[in-house]
Amino acid sequence: MNKQQMFTLELTGNKKFRPWAAKITGEDEKFGFKREFLNADEQDGNDKEYWLCDGVYEYTEGRRKFIVVKDGEATRIERDEVLELLK
After folding, report:
1. What local confidence, expressed as pLDDT, does residue 3 receive?
2. Buried-most residue among 38, 54, 80, 83 (CB within 10 A)?
3. Alpha-carbon span 24 to 40, nearest angstrom
4. In 1-87, where does DSSP find H-type helix?
5. E strands of 29-80, at which residues?
6. Per-residue pLDDT at 1
7. From CA 84, how far away is CA 7, in angstroms rounded?
8. What is the mean pLDDT of each run of 10 residues along the chain (87 residues)?
């Protein structure tokens, strides 16, 4: 998949927290979700950039958020919607 078909997720952090992003791959009894943590493509201080292909993702910029990426477009979703998508 080329970068034109991917979504760019840009996260900003600070000294208090470090942003991260992970692809959700299933449910997990202990942690809630099985996740593949992603490496940022570019970093500038605490800011990070991720190129995301189609899938469901969790990320944080102070609090946890969820998105679904399809055809290079991202849509914010809630935790219960993630659980529905995993069924």
Report:
1. 62
2. 38
3. 16
4. 79-86
5. 32-37, 42-44, 47-52, 55-60, 64-70, 73-77
6. 59
7. 22
8. 80 85 95 94 78 96 92 96 93
- The class level of CATH for 3-86 reads mainly beta
* pLDDT value of position 41: 79
Distance CA 30, CA 82 (A): 17
CB atoms within 10 A of CB 3: 11
- Whole-angstrom distance, CA of residue 15 vs CA of residue 4: 32
Q: Does pTM top 0.85 for this prediction?
A: yes
Tokens at 2, concatenated: 């080329």
Burial class (CB in 10 A: 0-12, 13-18, 19+), 2: exposed
Instruction: For residue 41, give the 3-state DSSP assignment.
Output: coil
Separation between Cα atoms, residue 8 and residue 39, nearest integer Å: 13
**52 Cα distance to chain centroid:** 8
